[in-house]
């Protein structure tokens, strides 16, 4: 899933390559992707793309006062295209969801792989009209240390869930929450409101460092190479069975109904493997 660093890097990429261009038309290939009807997608045609911003994991394209807002969900991505085909795409064929044509013949595709479709596209007059944006907590890279500590102190639940709750902190998803907890040497199942002062500050510093370093690796990349750059920097996420780069212990996994987390026992849980969540034997 694209998270704060990838969406921020896409924002920078589009500012460089697309801002100042006129949108000639927008093609909808996956009807389920569009979540609004007023204004229609067709209202963007003939308007200039004047700015790009990020709200948590939402990408916001300002098109002369209208906003094309995108949430890439788990398997969505933006592909920059040079010389887009002029023929409209056939609905329901392949991963293409939305195609945006710009005046010079270039543009970009919004695609989504897999059968579970979550990519969401909105055309609104204000980003605040998008329910997911209206509910966002402070941005993970903008929140100060005292606010971060206070947010966690008031949250009942495990750290993994707290870091990925967009109403608490905006921008962190499954991958970077694993990386942040590993860098902070904390169990994903530790309760958020039970952190010591040292642990809370350690977690804040790990969050800032992990996201900042990932962003530095991503910005300046072409859109096509960002996913690979993300994978290259991961220490534990999606590395089940491989050695931890810090201590050499084997990275382990806990599986849930539709997702999983990865962690290092030596670095994070005192050497003890975490029980499977479904067995309700959680190590804190």
Automatic annotation (TrEMBL):
Pfam families: Fapy_DNA_glyco (PF01149), H2TH (PF06831), zf-FPG_IleRS (PF06827). Keywords: DNA damage, DNA repair, DNA-binding, Glycosidase, Hydrolase, Lyase, Metal-binding, Multifunctional enzyme, Zinc, Zinc-finger. PROSITE patterns: FPG_CAT, ZF_FPG_2. This is DNA-formamidopyrimidine glycosylase. It catalyses: Hydrolysis of DNA containing ring-opened 7-methylguanine residues, releasing 2,6-diamino-4-hydroxy-5-(N-methyl)formamidopyrimidine. Residues 2-119 form the Formamidopyrimidine-DNA glycosylase catalytic domain. GO terms for biological process: base-excision repair. It is an enzyme of class 3 (hydrolase). Its cofactor is Zn(2+). Belongs to the FPG family. Its EC number is 3.2.2.23. InterPro entries: FPG_cat, FPG_N, H2TH_FPG, Ribosomal_uS13-like_H2TH, Znf_DNA_glyclase/AP_lyase, Znf_FPG/IleRS. It comes from Geodermatophilus obscurus (strain ATCC 25078 / DSM 43160 / JCM 3152 / CCUG 61914 / KCC A-0152 / KCTC 9177 / NBRC 13315 / NRRL B-3577 / G-20). Residues 235-269 form the FPG-type domain. GO terms for molecular function: 8-oxo-7,8-dihydroguanine DNA N-glycosylase activity; damaged DNA binding; DNA-(apurinic or apyrimidinic site) endonuclease activity; lyase activity; zinc ion binding.
């Amino acid at each position: 899933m694209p998270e704060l660093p990838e969406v921020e890097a896409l924002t920078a990429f589009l500012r460089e390559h697309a801002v100042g261009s006129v949108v000639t038309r927008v093609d909808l290939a996956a009807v389920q992707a569009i979540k609004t009807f007023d204004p229609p997608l067709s209202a963007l045609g003939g308007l200039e793309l004047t700015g790009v911003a990020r709200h948590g994991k939402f990408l916001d394209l300002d098109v002369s006062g209208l906003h094309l807002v995108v949430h890439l969900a788990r398997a969505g991505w933006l592909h920059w295209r040079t010389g887009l085909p002029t023929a409209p795409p056939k609905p329901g064929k392949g991963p293409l969801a939305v195609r945006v044509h710009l005046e010079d013949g270039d543009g970009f595709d919004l695609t989504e792989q897999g059968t579970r479709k979550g990519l969401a596209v909105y055309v609104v007059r204000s980003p605040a009209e998008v329910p997911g944006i209206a509910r966002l907590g402070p941005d993970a890279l903008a929140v100060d240390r005292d606010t971060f500590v206070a947010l966690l102190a008031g949250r009942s639940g495990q750290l993994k869930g707290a870091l990925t709750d967009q109403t608490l902190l905006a921008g962190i998803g499954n991958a970077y929450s694993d990386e942040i907890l590993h860098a902070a040497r904390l169990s994903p199942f530790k309760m958020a409101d039970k952190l010591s002062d040292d642990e809370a500050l350690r977690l804040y510093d790990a969050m800032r460092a992990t996201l900042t370093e990932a962003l530095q690796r991503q910005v300046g990349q072409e859109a096509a190479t960002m996913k690979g750059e993300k994978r290259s920097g991961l220490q534990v996420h999606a590395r089940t069975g491989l050695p931890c780069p810090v201590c050499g212990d084997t990275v382990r996994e806990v599986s849930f109904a539709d997702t999983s987390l990865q962690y290092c026992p030596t670095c994070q849980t005192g050497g003890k493997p975490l029980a499977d969540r479904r067995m309700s034997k959680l190590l804190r």
